[in-house]
Amino acid sequence: MRQLIQMFTVVVVIALALMYGASRLNSSQGFTGGSTLTIYNWGDYIDPELIAEFEKESGLKVIYQTFDSNEAMMTKIEQGGTTFDISIPSEYAISKMREENLLLPIDQSKLPNLKYINPRFLHLSFDPDNAYSIPYFWGTVGIIYNSDMLGGKKFTSWNDLWDPSLHNQILLVDGAREVIGMGLNSLHYSLNDTNEAHLQEAKNKLNKLTGNVKAIVGDEIKMLLANEEAAVGVVWSGDASEIMGENDKLDYVVPKEGSNLWFDNMVIPKTARNIEGAHAFINFMLDPKHAAQNAEYVGYSTPNEKALEYLPAEIAQDKRFYPDPELTEKLEVYKNLGKRMLSHYNELFLEFKMHRK
Fold first, then answer.
1. Which residues contact 260 (CB under 8 A, 6 or more apart)?
2. Whole-model pTM?
3. For a pLDDT cut of 70, what percent of the chain falls above it?
4. Domain boundaries, the chain
């Protein structure tokens, strides 16, 4: 027993020594909670020059990590294994994170640049008082297409995607809410529909689209469409803007039946260590010139009203990406469907993907 206790004591001492050594190493490199800011964001979703400028201005070292889905981001934050000071989830994820106490409240008194956000992007249903989130980007989901590859064909409706002439010509984003929502919208149902009969009807209709679907892909959808390896894509508006910048033969439309109006906001996860640094970063990104620079680099629509003055006119006045309120008021924001229904959407999407095989 004495030997067992001695062995246990040695193991504990070694573990503590290793933890202390790692802490000293991180400290010597500046990687402590107060001298670093850890940002968790979508891939290619910020101008790297802005990170460098923030580091220079604040004296903080930015550690930047990326995620590819709201669900993956929420799981990692919920597990708490990694500390994140800033994350940038979508609206329905913010609603869910609020419910599950995964967010810290934001002190708006530390954000003087919040005054530049267009009021129409504040006090939305997923965070009525913006107590937990601050607008970053917004946009729509729609159809991007290359008329030259399709004999001059144009798109106005989701149902245009089912045209037999589009065999093996469509790329879809790898997202359950987007694809199932597209099926629901094509039937004039809400993209937040939870009626089982409507969901099955949408899935059955999507099954009939499989002959036209070349692939269901992630970020590579931008390269594939720009390189004309497919003629049509269902994409987010910012991706469409970037693709069209690479190939001016492409155009983008929000279908007449309706679509998704989405918002990505900056939040402070509950495990944040550098809360002061997080507020400083949020306020930095709210600066109109920084917001304009970021919007021009990323391609998505900025909610920063003052930033529009610093954007080229061909961007700020493009109604495809800065549509009038009359259009956006007809679109739907994703609602938090709850774990059970969200899992069901994912199951239906998986069944659709399996049907293609």
1. 140, 141, 177, 178, 181, 191, 331, 332, 333, 334
2. 0.81
3. 90
4. 1-30, 34-138+265-317, 139-261+323-356
